[in-house]
Specification:
By secondary structure, the protein is mostly helical. The protein is built from 16 helices and three strands. 50% of the residues are buried.
């Protein structure tokens, strides 16, 4: 890994810890001001509104701006922003409108930071598929541990020390993240484009996703998944209490089991990519998620339910490594911000439908019904997207994304190619050879390999030796 990745990982981990603190503290702060469920819902929903309102436009802006500067300025601004509610809490001036406004602005900052970070990572790692999978695995694992395990309990504990304390702690985390990100190496600026309106550029980014079946499949997975998972999340506490007999502590253990599975899934994602290929790996994780929710719906006791949630979390964790890594590899740098924000916006827009669906099904039928419906939806989505994100389509996208004049891969980078393409992928070319287009026949895939050896600097090339091979790695080198 490049040295800069360690600083980026530390910045994201510290920031995620602060996010976890605020995620627990904001609703609890609102609860000290009102018991009105609708007012509490406003504070919660305000944080997601920026993605619904400005998702694609935010991506277009990130594609115009320097990504590293966008990240550190955004975190510095969020650190300054949190000083306002912290001061209001100290002076006993907190209000629901103020908390909702803070949640909205923090969400807006998250939109710009997350989109810029997604677009910056491929530049930092040279768009290497294996490095991207390893990096996303580490980032995902750290995010889960910091925001899922450590952050919420820390937020609750800090709130007991004073209403301003958790907000100040999150402000410090944003400030540290900004300092670390500012020290990262500068990435190439996005390619300047013809003068177009921001709306037109945003529309171009969204069209790029919807016209590419692979990218559309990668976007549909979290969108449909959010409908299913929010339907489950809406009734999970009621299901655990009424059907499984869990108390508050037991419900917390169920959520911990899911988060633990997420850590495991993020850790084994690269292994799945190597063994199955990225496309087949994504299909398998989707099927695992659907079957796990089906097992949760039929669970007779908390132990089976905890196991089902852990398995589902593992599938989600692996998906959140494989899918972004593939997207970062195949999307052109100047479109990365718009493509990432479009995909994220689709998933965020789908979430409210899932929450409504879960509540309606539980009210109309039974508390288990949303779980069965979610499992059916996930399995149907698996069947629909299997061909959209299959290994063959992934292969074609990776070949199309590779620069035509890319140097031959050294042996040390062979795992990167194998991870992205899966079993049967060609080994790196021998020195002095170029791979032509893939052609398929009864004997299997083959590549046209051309000897590019020249007899010296400035000399005319000898007649090229062109032949068809099933393993370009065996082509003879320059003698």
């Amino acid at each position: 890994m490049p040295a800069g990745f360690g600083r980026l990982w530390t910045a994201r981990t510290v920031s995620s810890l602060g996010d976890g603190v605020t995620h627990a503290a904001l609703p609890l702060l609102a609860l000290t001001l009102t018991r009105d469920p609708m007012a509490l819902a406003v504070v919660t929903a305000a944080g997601t509104l920026p993605w619904l309102l400005f998702g694609v436009l935010g991506g277009a802006l990130v594609d115009r701006w320097d990504r590293r500067r966008t990240m550190w300025v955004t975190d510095a601004a969020r650190a300054a922003l949190l000083a306002i509610p912290a001061g209001a809490a100290a002076l006993d001036l907190l209000s629901i409108p103020l908390l909702a406004a803070v949640a909205f602005l923090l969400g807006l900052g998250g939109l710009f930071f997350d989109t810029a970070a997604t677009a910056y990572l491929p530049d930092l790692l040279g768009r290497d598929p294996a490095l991207l999978e390893r990096a996303n695995s580490r980032l995902r694992g750290a995010q889960t541990a910091a925001s899922g395990f450590a952050g919420p309990p820390a937020g609750s504990a800090l709130l007991a020390l004073g209403r301003a304390v958790p907000l100040l702690a999150d402000a410090v985390s944003f400030a540290l993240s900004a300092l670390l990100v500012r020290s990262l190496p500068a990435a190439p600026r996005p390619v300047p484009q013809a003068r177009e309106s921001l709306l037109r550029q945003a529309r171009a980014g969204a069209s790029y996703v919807f016209r590419d079946r692979l990218l559309l499949g990668l976007a549909l997975r979290p969108a449909v998944g959010n409908i299913a998972f929010l339907a489950v999340e809406t009734v999970l506490a009621l299901f655990a209490h009424d059907r499984l007999g869990n108390d508050t502590f037991g419900f917390g253990l169920l959520l911990t089991a899911e988060a633990t599975g997420g850590l495991l899934g993020a850790g084994i994602a690269s292994f799945l990519g190597r063994r199955l290929g990225t496309g087949t790996g994504l299909t398998c994780t989707a099927a695992v998620e659907g079957l796990a929710i089906l097992g949760l719906a039929a669970a007779p006791n908390p132990y089976v339910a905890g196991l089902a949630l852990a398995v589902c979390g593992a599938g989600m964790g692996a998906t959140m490594v494989l899918a972004p890594s593939l997207r970062q590899t195949i999307v052109p740098a100047h479109l990365m911000g718009r493509v990432a924000s479009t995909s994220r916006m689709l998933s965020m827009c789908a979430a409210p439908f899932g929450a409504f669906l879960g509540g309606w099904l539980a009210t109309t039928y039974d508390v288990r019904t949303p779980l069965y419906a979610a499992a059916g939806l996930l399995l149907a989505m698996t069947a629909v997207t299997a061909t959209m994100t299959g290994n063959r389509r992934v292969e074609a996208a990776l070949r199309a994304a590779a620069p035509a004049d890319a140097p031959d891969l050294p042996a040390s980078q062979a795992p990167a190619q194998a991870t992205a393409l899966g079993p049967g992928a060609p080994r790196p070319l021998a020195p002095g050879h170029a791979r032509g287009p893939l052609r398929r026949s009864a004997e299997g895939p083959s590549w046209c390999v051309t000897n590019r050896c020249a007899s010296g600097a400035g000399a005319r090339r000898p007649a090229c030796q062109e032949r068809r091979v099933t393993d370009p790695g065996r082509a003879p080198g320059c003698g």
